[in-house]
Amino acid sequence: MTWLRGLRARLVITFVLVGGLSVVGAAGLTYYKAQLNLLTGVQNRLLKDFRNRVLLLSRDVALPAGDAELALLAEDLEVGDRKVYVVKDGAIPGDARVTAELRARVLRRPELAWQRVTRDGVPYLVGGSRVMLSAGGTPSGITIYLVESLEQAASDQAAVLSAAQTAALPAVLLAVLAGLLAARGVLRPVADLDRAARRLGEGRLETRLPVRGGDELARLAGRFNETAAALERSVGELREMEARSRRFVADVSHELRTPLAAATAVTDVLEAGADRLDADAGTAARLVTAEITRLTKLVDDLMEISRFDAGAAVLNLNEVDVGPAVAACLRSRGWSSDVTVDLPPDIRVPLDPRRLDVIVANLVGNALRHGAPPVTVRVRVTGQAVAVEVADHGPGLPADVLPHVFERFYKADAARARSEGSGLGLAIARENALLHGGDLTVAPGPGAVFTLTLPRTRPAGKAPARPGRRP
Amino acid sequence: MARVLLIEDDMNVRDALTLALKGRDHEVESAASGEEGLELLARFAADVVVLDLMLPGIDGFEVCRRIRATASTSIVMLSARGDDFDVVGGLEAGADDYVVKPVRSQVLEARIRAVLRRTDSVPSPVETYGELRVDRASLTVSRGGRRIALPPMELRLLLYLSAAPGQVFSRQQLLESVWEHDYLGDSRLVDACVQRLRSKIENVSAEPRYVQTVRGFGYRFGPV
Question: Which residues belong to any copy of the Histidine kinase domain (chain A) (predicted)?
């Protein structure tokens, strides 16, 4: 029962316990006092009165007296609904309320004995005393019994008890209400805090709590706000730093482009002239040309990944038949004879042909460079997606490398620090896949198996074109 | 060999491209700004303008529009790589094709050759489609009796499409046949050219009648 562990239940239970105990205690004490005052008071008064009368009367009695005299004496003593029996010691008055036990006690002791007896639901006080002769306390041989109803006193007492009970129920209800109110007062801020903490956890760092009053909960809310503000500040700074560093990369690539544009334009001239130069100069010219080509590729890739980071990559969707598009990609790079293809016709998908070309060229290029033949490219429909699978039959990728292949500049083999690629190819391929609302995954096969999945319908809710960033 | 006007503000890039194009037997004039380029164009009858978009003073887009307004010179843009905004803007301004900087001279050469490819005139009867008259002998197009001046690529696109009325061509097919791109090219070239062509031959307020879009596939001419 988890709700029992809740703050609300605990508060209500505590209030009810405290309220209930107070009511019960107060009622109990009242009842106890009432009993003393009402029942015992009446009883004591009666007994004292009785004792006095017995003393008073005993002087006038001539001993030994006859039964008629005794009956007369009893009549004298009877007041109201009090019943009095005057009998010889040891005789039994004809009244069931005078019990044998009382009679025995009366005979044993010189003073007054009494007992409370209930008959037919009515409480009675039954007293008995042997009458002593005033001189020296010698027994006169006469015993007086008294039977007095305590009904009035008992009903008064019952009234007190019922009053206490009547008061107890509203008091407990009041305690429940007070408990709920107190719980609300505490729980509302706690619930607010709970909600705010969840929002904060979801990344909405601007979340703040209203601070009401000056109690502990208000201080807690204040502390929460300070913490959230500090967190927001730190995260803001981190994001700003990250954005700055990304902007820096974009700016650097941009700046590199103009000198590279000049250098690239003349690489063909340099290459053509290399043969006419002497051996060393020719080698140098060819080396410079090759490195400029590499550098250009690297800067291109950096620019491309910067655009993804800036959210400036634009998707130009066309309904494209995937099979011929893949075939065209392979053909344009002269790979058609190196790759085994399985390209079913008429699989039309909304995609950006240039980006598909980038992805397929990267995957097949990697497979041809690092894997072993045969390299296969398969296109197939899987439910709501189209999968382009590029596999080679080389040794594959080690298990510890697989999770990292899409990371930027990740090199599986430290010794092969200088590969032909920029180290960004797979990262860019994956970004391109994600931009389409698809994915690019890698799995171990006989070699390495890369699978590009593209949705067959346009990605919903995603604006395909965002305004590009002007340089 | 062609007469190339190069408009590029960076001196080294300008020199390098001039060197590279001259090495490929082109006759090259170069300008460092749009104003200078436009002035030069008036004197130097260029076959093609190679135009950088980011220029001081009037920018490449404006230069492009001004060239298109007066001459049917072919225009190849020098675009910052993949800055799509530039590409779209340049194509809308009337550029026929674009290359991405840094560019190897052989790539630029291929693009220049493609846009300059002469449309062969064929002796054939004048074709009439509704109000549109296409004369493949004189390579002229007129609508409602009025001659329409079409820049080379737009004319080539129209001639290619109208040679097979009713047949649907994918953007990729058009890129390969009209622009001679031999790889998965940028279909926005086709879309932009179709838009420019339509603005000249179609009734602007109505649905396109001659060059129709086939959703999900490409374009077709007519049927009228």
Answer: 251-458
- Look at residue A401 and give its three-state secondary structure: coil
Name the nearest CA neighbour of A46 among A70, A76, A90, A80.
A80
Tell me the angle at which helices B60-70 and B84-92 cross, rounded to the nearest 10 degrees.
20
The pLDDT tens digits of the residues spanning A386-426 come to 999 998 888 878 888 888 888 888 776 654 445 556 788 88
Q: What's the DSSP call for residue A288?
A: H
**Predicted confidence (pLDDT) per residue in B100-156, tens digit:** 888 888 889 988 988 888 777 777 788 888 888 888 888 888 888 888 888 888 889
Nearest to B20 among A268, A304, A353 (CB): A268
Contact A389, A378 (CB under 8 A): yes
pLDDT at position A417 is 46
Q: Do residue A261 and residue B187 have CB atoms under 8 angstroms apart?
A: no
The β-bridge relationship of strands B218-221 and B211-214 is antiparallel
What's A318-455's CATH class? Answer: alpha beta
Q: Which residues of chain A have pLDDT under 70?
A: 1-4, 57-65, 134-137, 412-421, 459-471
Q: What topology is assigned to A217-309 in CATH?
A: Helix Hairpins (1.10.287)
CB A320 within 8 A of CB A353: yes
B102: chain A residues, CB-CB within 8 Å: 257, 260-261, 263-265, 296, 299
CB atoms near residue A350 (< 10 Å): 19
Return the structure tokens found at A179: 């408990």
Residue ranges covered by each domain of chain B: 3-116, 127-221
CATH 3.30.450 fits A2-160, yes or no: yes
Which letter does DSSP use for residue A125 in this model? E
* φ/ψ (deg, to 5) at B203: -75, 115
Q: Residue A59: what pLDDT?
A: 67
Torsion of CA A195, A196, A201, A204, to 10 degrees: 120
- Chain B segment 121-160 residues within 8 A of A by beta carbon are none
Q: What is d(CA B161, CA B148) in angstroms, rounded to the nearest whole number? A: 17
| Domain(s) of CATH 3.30.565.10: residues in chain A | 318-455
Mutant choice from A276, A297, A349, A470 vs B, greatest count of B C-beta within 10 A: A470
Q: Which residues does A contribute to its contact with B (CB < 8 Å)?
A: 254, 257-269, 272, 296, 299-300, 303-304, 307, 314, 316, 318-320, 324-325, 328-329, 332, 348, 353-354, 356-357, 467-471
Low-confidence residues of chain B, pLDDT below 70? 81-85, 182-185
> What CATH number should be reported for the domain whose range is B3-116?
3.40.50.2300
ipTM of the complex: 0.79
pLDDT tens-digit series, residues A276-297 = 888 888 899 889 998 898 888 8
